[in-house]
Amino acid sequence: MEFDYIIIGAGSAGCVLANHLSSDARNRVLLIEAGRDTGALSLKMPAAVLSNLTSTTHNWAFQGEPEPGLDGRVIQHDRGKTIGGSSSINGMVFIRGHALDYDGWQQAGCPGWGYADVLPYFKRMENYGGGGDAFRGAGGPLHVHRADPQDPITLAFIKAGQEAGYPITNDVSGYCQEGFGVSDRTVFKGERWSTARAYLDPVRKRSNLTILTRALVQKINFDGTKAVAVTYKTGAGILRSAHVRKEIILSAGAVGSPQILMLSGIGPAGHLRDMGLDVLSDLPGVGQNLNDHPDFVLKYKCKQPVSFWPKTKPLAKLGAGIQWMMTRGGIVASNLFEGLGCVRSGPGVDYPDLQIIISPIAVDDRTWAPLQEHAFQIHVGLMRAHSRGKIELRSSDPSDPPRILVNYLKDARDRDLMRKGIRLVRELVEQPAFSDLKGDEIFPGSDIHSDDELDQVLTSHATTQWHLSCTARMGAATDKGAVVDARGRVHGVSGLRVVDASIMPFVTNGNTNAPTIMLAEKLSDDILGRAPLPRIDADLWQNAEFAPCP
Predict the structure, then answer these.
(1) Are residues 235 and 200 in the same domain?
(2) Mind telling me the catalytic residues?
(3) Residue 396 within a domain
């Protein structure tokens, strides 16, 4: 088995690469996926997101290490284990991030990754439901649908943002991210639109594309320092190898990519030796610099019977399921995250660092079962945490999941920002728009006010937004913490790239699926030797009132 390109991981990035690299019939492309290839209805139904996350059928469900900043709590890290990867099981929220994220990447030593460089690729990948404009694309493979909220809770949330003095934005991925508005989601005609649907399904029958599923990669093999083959284990437990003529592209995600690099002898030399592995290339940054967005949820009673709780009762769920099966419409066609706010934690902050999202139903933190009353919840997400974690091997056995330590809230600055976010939400729900809806605060409770009290509930209840990233970050060869260059090529070896969320220098200001797809779009051109798309210098909104301090 010999191919021009071997792509490891058929997730959000891998499906994009498989599409573009196989577009030239002269290229033989192999796509290897550890999970299964399935047409399960749960992967098509937007409202089935919780059932996908509570199952391990399509979910790696990694168990993290005890978190020192969370009193030793273990956080589960859900990652897609199927064609489409996490885009097949995530919450479908589509946010590109802020323009200054990408300008920051460029300033961090990644030329060609400024906002003007990446905007053309965001546009190329999109088929935006509202039509194309200076910021949004039309005609791309990824359908992005703008929500049209009708429920009183979400509408009150957006209006309350305006009453509290925040801007109203008509597109958080366009001219103005800052403020309150309506979210976008990767849903098309009532179905989840993953990268499997958008990029892989249209090209599955190409004769030059081979797709292997239930194939767990064991290691990348080298001839000297040149990557030449991949060893994988089939579902039947048979070891096989596939050889490459041009390049191996590692797209196994922020957990899987550093794990496979280390299993292949690329990573921190001391750690590899401790695992009994030979060191091919001492790259200290592999598995380091782990970023995530911490999340905290406030819950409120709803004084009016307008929450979605009754729609979760057995007969109502059955009826909604039948409606969706017949029409692809109704509540099942929504991810229930239709209103959001992107705000700054205070004056002097360059751009929004808090993401606030409302859900018109409240659920139990552990079981995710709906609270048996009319209620709603508001998520506070910290977009630019200071804490950094790491991913390390547990053993040299590829089937042994790696150790994941995020260090949530370990940096005291993160606690301070999360407390500010909680207080901002409490101010928000006191606005007139919520006067007829907001009842008692169920959690953390109106008696929890002081910094110490808020720290206690953050320690006991803060969790993840499932945005693990940055564990094989881009940077110059002289940067000891960098793993790949600005073209995704692994330092110190040849014939090997990483293309997924792990190469972000730091996490973007919002959900990470859209930026991950953009990364693969952009780097696919580089792999194929194509010139990058022309830059687009867009005029962006700036808030003079919250200008950075001198």
Answers:
(1) yes
(2) 467
(3) no
